[in-house]
Design goal:
- The chain folds into two domains: 7-312 and 417-427, Pectate Lyase C-like (3 Solenoid); 316-397, no CATH class.
- 15% of the residues lie in helices and 40% in strands.
- The chain has helices at 2-23, 41-53, 127-132, 317-330, 373-376, 422-427; strands spanning 25-28, 58-62, 66-68, 72-75, 82-86, 89-91, 104-109, 114-117, 121-123, 146-151, 154-159, 162-164, 171-174, 177-182, 185-187, 198-201, 204-214, 220-222, 227-236, 242-247, 256-267, 271-277, 286-298, 302-307, 335-339, 343-345, 359-363, 366-368, 389-391, 396-398, 410-421.
- The protein is elongated, with a radius of gyration of 26 Å.
- The structure holds 2-acetamido-2-deoxy-beta-D-glucopyranose (NAG) (3 copies).
- One 2-acetamido-2-deoxy-beta-D-glucopyranose is lined by residues 113, 155, 157, 178.
- Keywords: Cell wall, Cell wall biogenesis/degradation, Glycosidase, Hydrolase, Secreted, Signal.
Length: 428
């Protein structure tokens, strides 16, 4: 009797299981030839093609195991919501040359309702590249690939993924609308150059929740055109902290609007919250509606820093003028150094002769001296304890610091920038 009864129940179970499967079609990469310790680029791309063509929602599965991945560039549009679920450990080639100058190792683009989930790891194996990275001083350095590029995604979720030891930035977000990162782990050693966590540009409604980001550079940084960005319950450190900018390097930059950071901890970072702009650009960059609340800073060198002289590697006015002067001064025929129209910041300048021929410095631009060097170099933290409010015509914030550690530390209760017009501040 018992066995007779169990047959229809078993049949019903099978029916239900296949019914659930029909709801979400599963495309397992091992069915497409993926094997541990081999390159799964083709298997993953082929599984993606089938999943993306499915008219019902689909799931591409990368099961546990260690795999190699040369590079990946998966694009929509897909016909239904699509999920890539990675439980495996995926390794990039160690030698950046094998990536043939791509700017991102793993790219997802032009997809609506995309989910990348699982407990898997994408390991950029960046150590070899970090030693070769000369992209600070050398403008013509080779392109170094980032771990992830998410471009033009909408209504999408990146969940539970670990990004490890990227060769360059870990995650770049461009042109996305409604993209949420949850339970992310992003890590690289404090000494690894340019391994920024998540960089966002030209995107709206990007959320970063419940994540840990420790790298050798910025934890989260906003480029121009970032709007409605929400960061909550994120721990940063080591690294350079949360950064708005750098802005003002390129023409046609779009404004940054709406940046809310709540309940975050910065631990052992160079900076806490930083706004950085390049000096000497004639354009206006604007940042509005920034709100920082319940931010704990432990052992942070500069908890709040507004740096309007952000100028790494001397790429700015002073250096340009000094270099032009040196060349002109060496010329055996008469020469002219021209500063074209525009507004430039100049800290100090000391140009000396003798020169080999007459020299004419023609200034058509507007050159500004720093009005208050302390203000331009950021806030002097030692004078900034216990809820002082700093004001100028264009910006305001109030901050509350309590020493937590032996080194600089504190907490921001609420800090709000309602409107910050960065050029106007420089010139005022
Ligand atoms: C944002 O995307 C998520 C994930 O697809 C979706 O559940 C949510 O409804 C979207 N929100 C809006 C405002 O469209
Ligand atoms: C905050 O994030 C951590 C992971 O970093 C998570 O374990 C914890 O549950 C989150 N807290 C809340 C209230 O979501
Ligand atoms: C706030 O952050 C702390 C420390 O990361 C975490 O334990 C807590 O769950 C967070 N609370 C919320 C509401 O996110």
């Amino acid at each position: 009797m018992d066995t007779k009864l169990s047959v229809p129940i078993f049949t019903l179970f099978l029916f239900l299981a296949s019914y659930v499967r029909a709801q979400t079609k599963v495309f397992d990469v091992t069915k497409y030839g993926a094997r541990p310790n081999t390159d799964i680029s083709n298997a993953l791309t082929n599984a993606w093609k089938d999943a993306c063509g499915s008219t019902t929602s689909s799931k591409v599965l990368v099961p546990k195991g260690t795999y190699m991945l040369n590079k990946l560039d998966l694009k929509g549009p897909c016909r239904a919501p699509i999920n890539i679920h990675v439980d495996g450990n995926i390794l990039a080639p160690k030698d950046p040359k094998l990536l043939n100058g791509v700017d991102q190792w793993v790219k997802f683009g032009y997809i609506n309702f995309f989910t990348l989930s699982g407990g898997g790891t994408f390991d950029g194996q960046g150590e070899m590249t970090w030693k070769q990275n000369d992209c600070g001083p050398n403008k013509n350095c080779h392109i170094i690939p980032m771990n992830f590029g998410f471009a033009f995604l909408s209504n999408s979720i990146i969940h539970g993924i670990t990004s490890k030891d990227s060769k360059y930035f870990h995650v770049n977000v461009l042109g996305c609308n409604n993209l949420t990162f949850i339970n992310m782990n992003i890590n690289a050693p404090a000494t690894s150059p340019n391994t920024d966590g998540i960089h966002i540009g030209r995107s709206t409604q990007v959320h970063i929740y419940n994540s840990n980001i420790g790298t050798g550079d910025d934890c989260i940084s906003l480029g121009d055109g970032s709007k409605q960005i929400h960061v909550q319950n994120v721990t940063c450190g080591p690294g350079h902290g949360i950064s708005v900018g750098s802005l003002g390097k390129y023409p046609n930059e779009e404004p940054i609007e709406g940046f809310v950071v709540k309940n975050c901890t910065l631990k052992n970072t160079d900076n806490g919250v930083r706004i950085k702009t390049w000096p000497g650009t004639p354009i206006i960059s604007s940042v509005s509606n920034m709100h920082f609340e319940d931010i704990i800073m432990v052992n942070v060198r500069n908890p709040i820093i507004i740096d309007q002289q952000y100028c790494p590697w001397n790429q700015c006015t002073k250096q340009a003028l000094t270099n032009a002067w040196k060349d002109a001064c060496r010329s055996t025929t008469s020469s002219k150094v021209v500063v074209p129209k525009g507004t430039y910041m100049l800290n100090k300048l000391d140009l000396k002769g003798p020169c080999k021929a007459p020299i004419n410095v023609q200034v058509d631009g507007n050159i500004l001296a720093p009005k208050d060097p302390k203000l331009l170099n950021g806030v002097d933290q030692s004078k900034n304890k216990d809820g002082k409010c700093y004001k100028s015509s264009n910006w305001r914030f109030s901050a509350n610091f309590h020493a937590l550690g032996a080194a600089a530390g504190g907490a921001i209760a609420i800090m709000e920038f309602s409107s910050l017009s960065l050029r106007a501040l420089e010139a005022s």
